[in-house]
């Protein structure tokens, strides 16, 4: 393409969608997409976005040496930005910390930032995913159980309208909206939110009426990324992208809505669908090369290796190990694991130097300039949970699946109301979940910021939950992507993100469409008259 495609990212989080588009290259090796504006309200995620944008500006000039010095903790961010002031200014302009839908944020201000970002470009792209907490199955069950009226009145149900307003005012050639699978079944005051959102996106000028910039005649066709079926034959489930089918080492199932303006070049639905890969990528393939670490002890301030080792050694002397009916092979695996605990294991750090082992799977992740790994430190666990992790990971190694709570020794069960037997079973029977080395992981969610119980490392000798970097690998963030904030902040950002490698594949499909649009510019698709500036 002759023209660069500006990209606006709404509700950007830490930038997973943007990263995929920024990494895409055409046949000549050039990136046709330019993320000109990312909008995010969370201050820590905004810092991550800003740093990544800075890196892109710096890397274009082959001058990223100081960025990697920052990742290795050799210089501060202040020193980094001061040394490269021009790139820092550009990054700050491209990353805006703002809360869309807030009464304190005038929509005219939003339009001003968008106008400045896209300029006169007719071929530009809107991407993003409105906050998903209100649509998630677990989230809405939690709110409804406490206060049903609060759920019905949750304004997050309608934050998609902030996205919709921009579609209505600017009529971009194409847009991409992402959200959780729970959106398909969300009901608010008897209204199915998925059907409502699709209907509104198909005719945004009708749905958002009353402003001069709206054109009620502009229509969109909503495409599925996973099914080539005709529009009338599509079911709700056809809009779900099962990430593991597309080379993502995670069973992450999310709704993607791809809108194409109806007056533009027609495309076959099959041309826009993602291409499934022939085999699944496993957890082990993307994390086993990382430095081995031990967990910490949250009850011990000294937290030295000997204390950790002593806690795990004590497992074979406990009541649950000695007196309860445990599978003989699991017992043997536990004893073997305790005897193999390495004395050199540390808890990691924000940066660790290590020699990368190249492989085709890791090519997406590795940057030799980093000379190590960042965001790779472990959290602390109480001794009882360490015993549960030890049992679970050894059980998984023996039986090939993570144990349900019914398969735990009774005296090892946590004293929690959610594990109380009820109607012959247990609530949250998989409260502790080992991520199996030979399979894609379960979905990385922001719950990982609260505890690591659902994300137990498959290697029993490390006896811990996943680090931020391991979770980021599963989410397909490159190793040179640094997450700002505390470890809890980092986990939350990773869990809220779209896998960049999935976004990269979507970018390829969208690029093909925009290329055809550019080739058809003689038909008027690229005229300045077609580009609205969103003014009332």
**Fraction of residues in helix:** 25-40%
| Main sheet overview | 8 strands, mixed
> CATH architecture of the largest domain, please?
3-Layer(aba) Sandwich
Overall number of strands: 16
Protein structure class? alpha/beta
- Estimate what percentage of residues fall within beta strands: 5-15%
Instruction: Write down the CATH topology of the largest domain.
Output: Rossmann fold
Question: Mean of the pLDDT scores?
Answer: 89
Give the CA-based shape: globular
CATH superfamily of the largest domain: Vaccinia Virus protein VP39
CATH class of the largest domain: Alpha Beta
Distance between the termini: 32 Å
Number of helices: 20
Into how many domains do the coordinates divide?
2
Low-confidence stretches: 527-532
Query: What would you report as the Rg, rounded to the nearest angstrom?
Result: 25 Å
What do you see in this structure?
- 35% of the residues lie in helices and 13% in strands.
- It has helices spanning 16-23, 43-59, 65-71, 77-83, 85-94, 107-118, 137-146, 148-152, 160-170, 193-202, 204-207, 269-272, 283-287, 305-313, 319-322, 328-339, 383-399, 468-474, 487-496, 500-519, and strands at residues 5-10, 33-40, 95-97, 125-128, 174-180, 187-188, 191-192, 220-223, 240-242, 253-261, 296-297, 348-353, 372-377, 380-381, 421-422, 425-426.
- Strands 1, 2, 3, 4, 5, 8, 9 and 10 form an 8-stranded mixed β-sheet that branches.
- It is globular, with a radius of gyration of 25 Å.
- The model is unreliable at 527-532 (pLDDT under 50).
